[in-house]
Amino acid sequence: MPLEMLGTSPRHLSPAVRAGDFVFVSGQLPTDAEGRVVEGGIEPQTRQVFEHLRSTLALAGCGLGDVCKVTVWLQDAADFAGFNRVYAEAFGEHKPTRSTVQARLMIDAKVEIEVTAFKPA
Predict the structure, then answer these.
(1) First to last CA, the chain
(2) Is 13 helix (H, G, I), strand (E, B) or coil?
(3) CB-neighbour burial class of residue 84 (10 A; exposed 0-12, middle 13-18, buried 19+)
(4) Cα(2)–Cα(101) distance, integer angstroms
(5) What total of structural domains would you count in the chain?
(6) 29 is in which domain, residue-wise?
(7) pLDDT, tens digit, 9 for 90 and up, residues 94-103
(8) CB of 58 within 8 A of CB of 119?
(9) CATH number for the domain that contains residue 55
(10) Is pLDDT above 60 for 37?
């Protein structure tokens, strides 16, 4: 099964890859157009990450409703409630599987999220 790289990134990774009917989206961070982490805490940062997820999924003709698996890294477990509020708003009634862990992130951000979507090619 050939891999199709989707989008471009100045980083050494693909924003997303389609492998058959699955789309794997790299971890998205809460950065603005200039690459700066958005301010205001966990909720604005989570909203920014979901904006990145939506635009990256769109490269493969997908949306959040096609997501089947979510992996979340939170810098501070105390931010879980605020993160979860925004997460619930973003997904609504759609309930993909999810793993959430606390981890020190590579940049000074509060959240990173990666997703896997299923959308027949």
Answers:
(1) 12
(2) coil
(3) middle
(4) 31
(5) 1
(6) 3-118
(7) 999 999 999 9
(8) no
(9) 3.30.1330.40
(10) yes
